[in-house]
Amino acid sequence: MAVSRNGSSNTAHVNMMTDSVIANLPPDGLRVIIRSLLASHPNITASFEDATRQYLAQAQTKSSKSQFASLDVEGLDQAQKIARCMLGSGQALDGVSILDKLVVRGVQIALDSPESMNQSVAALLASLDGDLVQAMTAVTKELAVSSGARALSSTEQNIIQGLFESLAKCQEMLKGTGIVFPYGRGMLTTANMLGLALPDSPETRLSKVPSDMARPAPAKETFQLGDKTLPRIFSGLWQMSSPAWGSAQMSQIIEGFSTHVRNGFTAFDMADHYGDAEVLYGRFRSMYPHKDEMFTATKYCVFHPMTVSREAVQANVSERCNRLQQEVIDLLQFHWQLWDNPQYIDALKYLAEDKRVARIGLCNFDTEHLERVVESGVKIYTNQVQFSLIDSRPTVKMAGACSRHGIKLLTYGTLCGGFIADKWLKQPEPDVYDTNITPSQRKYYGMICSWGGWDLFQELLSVLRTIATKHKVNISNIATRWVLDFPYVGAVIIGARIGMSEHTSDNATTLGWRLDDDDRRLIEDVLDRSDRAEMFETMGDCGNEYR
Known about the structure:
single chain, alpha/beta, eight-stranded parallel β-barrel, two-stranded antiparallel sheet, 12 strands, about 50% helix, globular, disordered N terminus
């Protein structure tokens, strides 16, 4: 058994019976247990990441370029997993160094593979493209310091420049082959990190927006946010934060944005840590001929201790504007993780001074801290919180505060990661660690268990199906409509897998009507048998599940 680098034999000791469990559990079982431990005891996360780094170092994963040059598809897949572990455990630049080699080898495999393997190889390269996006997010995280963000060191700059040059090499390798360059998103985010313009290529030309594109269809239902009239469904881009939701090529994503705005879904929600969401959205918007009809809602999130200063806050706004290619941000939503540090008030005041921020919103603020912000004199337009049939905590305290201060809620989690849908009616309890289950579904399955369990959830779905049949819509429409019917809710944010799936027609069916008293009574009959009241006591007010 390996001994940790600090030389302590205690850290190497595992009870022999426990070791027998570890040795014999299937890998999927170990993953379930590790996730459960980290969720229940978040204080061990740092130790887990440190142990991961030590394992990767001892396993000598930093292989030479010649070793990567001979990898087959299976070997590439294994090396990709190592790179992902590095990105997730605070070794972003080491992960980038591996990806630098994998992208070239991936293209070589694509060129040499028989036609029968085209689909599987294309999927692998698309996932690598998603990893490149994740890598730049991980690098950005490592640049965070207490005063905001530091610049790349010369060594870091060289590593990322090397990746960019490898991507350019891949473009050259594919010229005239008929194979579409698979790393468009990765190249765009890498160029953005280096402050470079994206070189012209067939892929970038595919990602153009026609200059004669028609104006968006009028929204079927709107609400007022200050002087702005907005649709009541926002498209959420959090699924672009990780390849766990799948990966699409840049041209497919640009086309996905086109579909959304063409159908009247012109408001988009994103964040500084949602992978390349800001960059790709900004690219689309910059080319869209009716950009003034779009609404940009992004976030400034402070997850770790920082020393707030005007310069640090302004630097974050500058980064948002740069990535979005906008001089003014329509709505900048502020998340502050650590309530014991009251500097969030100072940060919000600095945002209020910045003319590049048209409107300020909050994200995952509870009622107490929202009230403190309002008392400070900062004008707040929105608060983004979790709100659904399963998690109705906003009705307890937040509703009153929003009504008093004219603040609108932007809600997420309304469909519980897709569980509140016809496809889950009459289905057995899911294995949340199945490869087909998304990170969101793992999270919201836990919410369903806290709310009342899978059997009661099935009763709820059955009632929603009855109501949906009456209104000739689907279960998700009813769940969304239930939230929208609260007067303090401005819009529901529905996650969009831009470029991979398209649900604008289904989403539009939610709008332009209301649930009647009989509908609400049927729903309440189920909710009254749930533990929704206890959830407020055990989880706390809005947003406190993250703290």
